[in-house]
Amino acid sequence: MIDGPYFVLTVLGVLGTGLVAGVFCGFSTFVMRGLAALPPAQGVAAMNAINVTAVRPAFMLVFVGSAGLAAVIAVVTFVLWPDEGTVELLLGSALYLFGSFGVTMIANVPRNDALARLEPGTPEATTYWPTYVREWTAWNHVRTVASAAASVSYVLAIA
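^ that's the sequence the OP posted. Answer follows.
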C-alpha cells in the first residue's frame, strides 16, 4: 500500500479530480441544457458571464492545482516506481492531464474565446450559439468522464 507523503498526494489527487468531475458533470447534465433552453442572446450572455467567473481563484486552484498534482504524482511514480498502484497512478495522471486539462485547453477554451468575441443578440451570435452548445457540451462530456476516471484510478491505487 502507498503510504506517507505519497499517500497524501494521492488522496489530494482523488479529491481534486473528483471535485472537477463534479463541476463538469453539473455542466453536462443540467447547466448547458438550461442555457440552451434560453433565447440565444440570453444564453450567450449567460455563458460569457460564467466563463469570466470560472477563471477566478476558487475554481482555478482546484482545476489547475489538480493538473499540477497529477504531474507531480506521475513524476514521483516514475522515479519511485512503487510495488503497488503504479499503473493506476500513471493512468489517473494521464487521464486528468490529457482528458481533462488538455481537452479544456484545445477544445473548450477556444470555443469560449470565440463566443466571447460575439455580441449577444447579433445574427452571428444567434447562428453560432447552437453549434457552441453542442460542441462545447460534447467535449465537456469527455472532460467529465476523464476527471471521474482519474479519481477512480487514484482510489484504486490506494485501495
